[in-house]
Amino acid sequence: MTSDTITETAGRAEQRGQVLRATGVTMRFGGLTAVRGVDLSVDSGEIVGLIGPNGAGKTTFFNCLTGLYVPTEGTVAYRGTVLPHRSHLVTQAGIARTFQNIRLFANMTVLENVLVGRHTRTRGGLFSALVRGPGFHRAESESEARSMELLSFVGLESKRDHLARNLPYGEQRKLEIARALASDPGLLLLDEPTAGMNPQETQATQELVFAIRDQGTAVLVIEHDMRFIFNLCDRVAVLVQGEKLVEGTPDVVQADERVVSAYLGTPFEGEPGEEEAAEVEAAEAHSTARSEGEDGA
């Protein structure tokens, strides 16, 4: 892609407020194609859901977006600029993520975990750390203040000195989100944020995601809890066998027979329509009434 093309794309993205544009993303592992030609965009102020049966390629697609995998084909652009295939550079550009399996630093405190997330936004190098002059201490103080803001935002400020491993499961999820937010992303990717949660924790997570969006961070989320997804998202895309099956509002996606088929594993072609179903119901009612009449006689 030429610099002129990137500039033109950036201009269009700026007009739409688009933060993410994945185009034709394909990921092959030897002879297996895990993701095939997937297009997806996320606009500023949006919450977009990515759903699909197990093995549909959702996490593989996330890994392509965040630089953990180099796509076999396709491009990923953030605010109109094609991203490099390095996870730390993707984070530096403005995309942060959480993982399906919690990846905290178990033997570090809650505050220290969030401070780790600040490293891409902290200025100063090795020399500054060795000399530990006024600039170093100022940056350290600013990072701690920002980290405490985030802990307060997710409701963990009172746990700042607790070891991450000692937190309950739901609070570990919150801490992982706080650490991701520490890099001040424009787009947050959440990989199954409510996995293993009870209904109360799931509701709290939904409210937290809304609050993140309201603070100006767009969100792309993978989740198996359909109620959570359809209550949360502005748009939903469905992956099946590595390909995007359908995309639209929650109402459109829920009503699509192909989505029902993909999740239930039942055929949707040739199923009876409303007229046929009404005829069956009428025939059943007629048969029941006739049987009752014969019994009464």
Task: Describe it.
The chain has 297 residues and is of the alpha/beta class. 46% of the residues lie in helices and 21% in strands. It has twelve helices and ten strands. Helix 4 crosses helix 6, helix 4 runs parallel beside helix 7 and helix 6 crosses helix 7. The N and C termini lie far apart (84 Å). The relative contact order is 0.14.
List the helices and strands and how they pair.
Elements: H1 3-16, E1 18-29, E2 32-43, E3 47-51, H2 58-65, E4 73-78, E5 81-82, H3 87-93, E6 95-97, H4 110-117, H5 126-131, H6 134-154, H7 169-181, E7 187-191, H8 199-214, E8 218-222, H9 226-232, E9 235-240, E10 243-248, H10 250-254, H11 257-264, H12 274-296
Parallel strand pairs: 3-8, 3-9, 6-7, 7-8
Antiparallel strand pairs: 1-2, 1-4, 4-5, 9-10
Helix pairs in contact: 4-6, 4-7, 6-7
Helix content: 40-55%
Anisotropy-based shape: globular
Query: Which spans have pLDDT < 50 for at least 5 consecutive residues?
Result: 1-15, 125-131, 267-274
Largest sheet: 6 strands, mixed
Determine the mean pLDDT. 82
What is the count of DSSP helices, taking H or I runs of 4+ residues?
12
N-to-C series of helices and strands? HEEEHEEHEHHHHEHEHEEHHH
Radius of gyration: 24 Å
Helix/sheet category = alpha/beta
Strand percent estimate: 15-25%
- The tally of beta strands, per DSSP, is 10
Span between N and C termini?
84 Å
Multimeric status of the protein: single chain
What strand line-up does the widest sheet have?
Answer: 6-7-8-3-9-10
